[in-house]
Specification:
The protein has about 325 residues and is of the alpha/beta class. It has 2 domains: about 170 residues, Quinone Oxidoreductase, Chain A, domain 1 (Alpha-Beta Complex); about 140 residues, NAD(P)-binding Rossmann-like Domain (Rossmann fold). The strands form 3 sheets. Strands 3, 4, 5, 6, 7, 14 and 15 form a 7-stranded mixed sheet that branches. Helix 3 crosses helix 4 and helix 3 crosses helix 9. This is Alcohol dehydrogenase. Keywords: Oxidoreductase. It is an enzyme of class 1 (oxidoreductase). Its EC number is 1.1.1.1.
């Protein structure tokens, strides 16, 4: 089979094409032929060597996609050959609360990922895809979509009428925007690009703020909300934006920290606000198979579609990475097999 490997992890140029023997499904495993895979920010960090710890140069990257089951191990009855499936990237997190042990089986990081003609997945982790959903609408759910679901539904229990603030127009932010809207919430979104904010408006954003035009964007949000602020903040900016997020949060608001973006500023510049406004801050890491199942049902029931910026062919995977890294896009960057 054809595949891409991470190589020396010193930049996007480290990605290298290879040919391997097609794997065989071991006990409790299934083989899946990817049809469409989606890039996320940590895919860039991984090949640059800033995420994932020490991994072999032969690791196959990419953590989310959709494909068709081509083989199942003896005794596997949960899925059948020919079924279209997805899989959360924490393959051992089936249900229940988060446990750090889930980092031990992270598809595309600790275990080979989707950027190959065949991927080996635990049968217990995969989920059949409803026939009504297009590949484009499920290929990007396992990371960005599932994380947004965990943040909004599982952690924050978002309510109709609440204001959700999304930082930037990345995968998690756009997924949160669309989920929040179908759940009856209002959405504010930030970006440094007016063109991207126009697209965000078209996707349903109620408030848009250019953080280059308004460097003190938290104050601008407060101004546009009459001093109320955001009930929920999807904090994807990292350490340097957390202070602004705290300043933008409403009384009894919730901030969900997503991702591991480092920074130079103090992580908590306004400690007193936690008490005076009763703010809750919580970090999350993706979600479980059970959450993914709920997400798939919600996507199907509400006909939630995925915004796709550009789709590349498998042979063009390095170009897909470069396009993603340029950060001029709005929507998912995908690779089709």
């Amino acid at each position: 089979m054809k595949a891409l490997e991470i190589g020396k992890r010193d930049g996007l140029h480290a990605l290298r094409a290879t040919t391997r023997e097609t794997p065989v499904a071991g006990p409790g495993q299934v083989l899946v032929a990817p049809r469409l895979v989606s890039l996320i920010s940590r895919d860039l960090q991984f090949v640059r060597g800033t995420y994932g710890g020490v991994q072999p140069e032969t690791r196959i990257p990419v953590s989310e996609g959709v494909g068709v089951v081509t083989a199942v191990a003896a005794g596997v009855t949960s899925v059948k050959v020919g079924e279209r499936v997805v899989c959360g990237h924490f393959a051992s997190w089936i249900d229940g609360p988060f446990n750090p042990a889930v980092f031990g089986h992270d598809i595309g990081i600790t275990h080979d990922g989707w950027l190959a003609e065949t991927v080996v997945l635990p049968a217990a982790a995969v989920l059949p895809v409803p026939a009504s959903l297009a590949d484009e609408d499920v290929a990007g759910l396992a990371s960005a979509g599932l994380t947004a679901w965990n943040a909004l539904v599982e952690v924050c229990r978002v309510k109709p009428g609440e204001l959700v603030l999304c930082l930037g127009t990345g995968g998690v932010a756009l997924a949160a925007l669309k989920l929040a809207k179908v759940l009856g919430a209002r959405v504010a979104i930030t970006s440094s690009s007016n063109a991207k904010l126009v697209i965000a408006r078209e996707l349903g954003a109620d408030i848009t703020i250019n953080y280059r035009t308004h460097p003190q964007w938290a104050a601008e949000l407060m101004a546009q909300t009459g001093g109320a602020g955001a009930d929920i903040v999807i904090e994807t900016g990292g350490q340097d934006t957390l202070g602004h997020s705290i300043a933008a949060t409403a009384v009894n608001g919730r901030i969900v920290i997503i991702g591991v973006t480092p920074g130079q500023q103090p992580a908590v510049p306004d400690y007193v606000s936690f008490i005076t406004r009763n703010i809750t801050i919580r970090g999350i890491a993706n979600g479980s198979r059970a959450m993914m199942s709920d997400l798939l049902r919600a996507v199907a029931a509400n006909r939630i579609t995925t915004t796709v910026s550009k789709t590349f062919g498998f042979a063009e995977a390095p170009e897909a990475y470069a396009y993603y890294a340029a950060a001029n896009h709005v929507g998912k960057v995908m690779i089709r097999f």
